[in-house]
Design brief:
17% helix, Immunoglobulin-like, alpha+beta
Length: 422
């Protein structure tokens, strides 16, 4: 079911702008929203869904604003929250920042966008690239094209017709983030890979693209069980991908949006060998000093190199007089983080490096805090994927038959990558 109205409020609950879509909810009911929310906060029962009589409020907070929708029906909650987040996304595309001032400065434009994004409470055109083709802002003057672009009225709502490029190119990035949690005794407690296929498309006309991956299910269906393949989980696609085609024969077939977008995301709940292994020995000398010995080892092939490696080592909040000794890179103490940052610009595979740090402590021992925060690691490894996913082909078919260059790049980076210490 649909939403009835949308309101944008300031932090005090004052309505900055509102749009009534269905006329089935009294617009003055919004006056009840803030008092109910404050009562709930006092009782420690904050919820993004607030009920008052027959009206349900669903809201999100962004900066100093509340975006609130009202409904009297049994609404699809996921759809309503998706619309509210989409409003924020589109407003940011237009205004670059979303706060009380940008709302006040752009009333006319916001009303136009609210009318195009939602019709009678249902989502309509939500792609900001398409909206910007016919709702444009020149200074303070709003210009509306005499008729909407074809994308709004045809089946391919994410791409306009008549796009032309002198040089036709496609850039495809496979970006994998490694989430890892290692216990103090060296056991891997949690590991997963979260991947995304990101594209930048500069192609003329209405091209049809087909992407081939070393997908395990596809390889099993076609009898290529000996070839190296990857079992993808939790696959999510951009709206341009033909889902029925993928479900039938695992073909990723689509007419892409113009410019930059995320084609798909996936997850692999697999045992990941830590790419950068970190060991720490911490010696605490009561009332006087603390010494750290940190060993970092790259556990990937020698032909790969991790760039901009940052190892963040927590230290006591009352530590001072830092001294460092390292075989590579640079170290600095960051007091506001109570941490040492060990930075290694280039960390080739199969290497091991050492860092020693020495801190003085005040003579009066500070209260020992519960537990020590884990060591964190950040890195980026180009031309490499942990999962072994490969782009086997990217075919570009367009009726004019032009030649296009596809460029493919692989990057592995840290996600939530933590190593606990004693």
């Amino acid at each position: 079911m649909s939403l009835s109205a949308v309101f944008i409020l300031d932090m005090k609950g004052k309505v900055l702008i509102s749009r009534n879509y269905r006329g089935d909810v009294d617009m003055s009911v919004i006056d009840k929203f803030m008092p109910i929310l404050m009562d709930m906060e006092e009782e420690g029962q904050v919820s993004p869904i607030v009920v008052h009589g027959e009206t349900t409020f669903m809201f999100i907070q962004y900066n100093n604003l509340y975006l609130v929708s009202t409904t009297r029906k049994n609404a699809n909650v996921c759809m309503v929250f998706t619309i509210l987040h989409k409003l924020v996304e589109v407003f940011l595309e237009y205004f670059k920042e979303l706060e009380e001032e940008s709302i006040r400065d752009n009333f006319v434009l916001i009303y136009e966008l609210l009318d195009e994004l939602i019709d009678f409470g249902y989502p309509q055109t939500t792609d900001s690239k398409i909206l910007q083709e016919y709702i444009t802002q020149e200074g303070q003057r709003l210009e509306i094209a005499p008729r909407p672009p074809m994308a709004v009225t045809n089946a391919v709502s994410w791409r306009s017709e008549g796009i032309k490029y002198r040089k036709n190119e496609v850039f495809l990035d496979v970006v994998e983030s490694v989430n890892l949690l290692v216990s103090a005794n060296g056991n891997v407690l949690r590991s997963e890979i979260v991947g995304a296929v990101k594209m930048r498309v500069f192609l003329s006309g209405m091209p049809e693209l087909r992407l081939g991956l070393n997908d395990k299910i596809l390889f099993e269906n076609t009898g290529r069980t000996k070839s190296k393949s990857v079992e993808l989980e939790d696959v999510k696609f951009h709206q341009c991908v033909r889902l029925s085609r993928f479900e039938n024969d695992r073909t990723i077939s689509f007419i892409p949006p113009d410019g930059e977008f995320e084609l798909m995301s996936y997850r692999l709940n697999t045992h990941v060998k830590p790419l950068i292994w970190i060991e720490s020995v911490i010696e605490r000398h009561s009332h006087s000093r603390v010494e750290y010995m940190i060993k970092a080892k790259s556990q990937f092939k020698r032909r790969s190199t991790a760039n901009n490696v940052e190892i963040i080592i927590p230290v006591p909040s009352d530590a001072d007089s830092p001294k460092f000794k390292t075989t590579i890179g640079s170290c600095k103490y960051i007091p506001e983080m109570s941490a040492v940052l060990w930075n290694v610009k280039s960390f080739p595979g199969g290497k091991e490096y050492l860092m020693r740090a020495h801190f003085s402590l005040p003579s009066v021992e500070a209260e020992k805090k519960e537990g020590t925060p884990p060591i964190q690691c950040r890195f980026e490894i180009p031309y490499f994927t942990t999962s072994g996913i490969q782009v086997r082909y990217l075919k570009i078919i367009e009726k004019s038959g032009y030649q296009a260059l596809p460029w493919v790049r692989y990057i592995t980076q840290n996600g939530d990558y933590q190593i606990r210490t004693h």
